[in-house]
Amino acid sequence: MGDSYDNALTEIINGLYKAKVIRLHSWKNREAVELATLAWADWFNHRRLLESIGNIPPAAAEAAYYRQLDESARAA
């Protein structure tokens, strides 16, 4: 079960998605919305650079974190 921080983050991401993807276009069909959603999610996770984590994408930061955990486990 999530807490209020999870809910707030979800609402922020949903609002950003609607503002940057859904409301900027008139969509021909459901497939066009789905493809735009996939492209936006790919950008959001793999291409968007976050200054707070060293100007790298979130997916790269997550991969580095799990690599560090794996290396620590092997060293122990």
Features:
3 helices, 76 residues, elongated, mainly alpha
Can you give me a brief rundown of this structure?
The chain has helices at 4-22, 30-47, 58-75.
Secondary-structure element order, N to C: HHH
Oligomer, anyone? single chain
Helical content stands at: over 70%
Number of strands: 0
Structural class: mainly alpha
Question: How many separate domains?
Answer: 1
Low-confidence stretches: none
Pfam families: rve_3 (PF13683)
Protein name: Transposase IS3 family, IS51 group, OrfB
GO biological process, one term: DNA integration
Domain Integrase catalytic: 2-58
Report on the architecture of this protein:
The chain has one domain. Helices cover 72% and strands 0% of the residues. The protein has 76 residues and is an all-alpha fold. The mean pLDDT is 92.
